Amino acid sequence: MHSPLESTYHTPDDTLDKIDKNKLQEAAEIVGALVYQIARPDTPALEHARVAPGPVDYDFNDCPPGA
Predict the structure, then answer these.
(1) Residue 15: pLDDT band with limits 50, 70, 90
(2) What does the alpha-carbon distance between residue 3 and residue 50 come to, in Å, rounded to a whole number?
(3) pLDDT given at position 19
(4) Of 49, 1, 8, which is closest to residue 23 (Cα–Cα)?
(5) What is the pTM for the complete model shown?
């Protein structure tokens, strides 16, 4: 996604302080857009899905303790 890769990429020197916040935000926005495209209710791929053939109403008030 980002090229060229940093010289410390996947080495012992690849530590949190080397994370580029702009690149991280860009990656998060891309992943978020992708998830939205896949999961939105009007996605054609979900029309014939058996997982959630209709709208799902999650009742979060009935969750067991610790869930």
Answers:
(1) very high
(2) 39
(3) 87
(4) 1
(5) 0.51
| Whether the Cβ atoms of residue 22 and residue 15 lie closer than 8 Å to each other | no
Three-state SS string over the chain comes to: CCCCCCCCCCCCCCCHHHCCHHHHHHHHHHHHHHHHHHHCCCCHHHCCCCCCCCCCCCCHHHCCCCC
C-alpha span between 19 and 17 (Å, rounded): 6
Distances (CA, A) of 7 to 3, 18, 19, 41, 47: 11, 11, 13, 42, 45
**Which positions ≥6 away from 64 have C-beta within 8 Å?**
none
Residue 32 to residue 5: CA distance in whole angstroms: 22
